[in-house]
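Researcher: Quick sanity check before group meeting.
Model: Go ahead. Protein one:
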Amino acid sequence: QVHLVESGGGLVQPGGSPRLSCAASGVADSINDMGWFRQAPDKQRELVAKVSRGGNTYYGDVVKGRFAISRDNAKDTVYLQMNSLKSEDTAVYYCFAEVRLLGGRSYTAWGQGTQVTVSS
């Protein structure tokens, strides 16, 4: 199984620029898309950004132009550079990875979530 460990959350001032990291470990044939969802209190979980193994990116409309996602395939790690943070960005951020196991089975692995709170 693949485990995802996130880091980089915390309390951030409005306009701040923290970076989240998510490292995958375990046994897999390959890890395809990696990315981040977020969930704010009393709101549905929403896709923030994702990046394919080949580097193609997708961003949710609410973060386009402010966040940047990248990955290091050699380290099986995905990063989310968050810029110009607003109070509306306050949420728990969950890392995910589309994992293909030896033998062909695929599933989505999830991190435990990291809280990002934007407040002065």
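Researcher: Fine. The other one?
Model: Protein two, sequence then structure:
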Amino acid sequence: QVQLVESGGGLVQTGGSLRLSCAASGNIFSINAMGWYRQAPGKQRELVASISSGGMTNYADSVKGRFTISRDNAKNTVYLQMNRLKPEDTAVYYCNAAGIRTTGRLFSSWGQGTQVTVSS
């Protein structure tokens, strides 16, 4: 099993900042891609940002220039620094990690989600 534990969500005013963290643990051989997704009420889950094992990043257009994704491969942890937050960023944020277990099997695991609320 591979578990992802997220932290760092909360309530912030428009223009504020938050930093999300997600730590992966379990029978992990390697992690390839890690990413953050979000789901607002009544909407589909969408990709916010992703990062490869080599550090290549990808962002949704709506967060480019405001959010920064990074990872610590030694700690199997991914971060999302969110600046200049807007009310439309309000959502439950989920972490995802995909890689290879120590058994050689592939995995794709999700965290439990953390609520981010931006007040106007």
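Researcher: One line on it for the slide.
Model: The chain has a mean pLDDT of 97.
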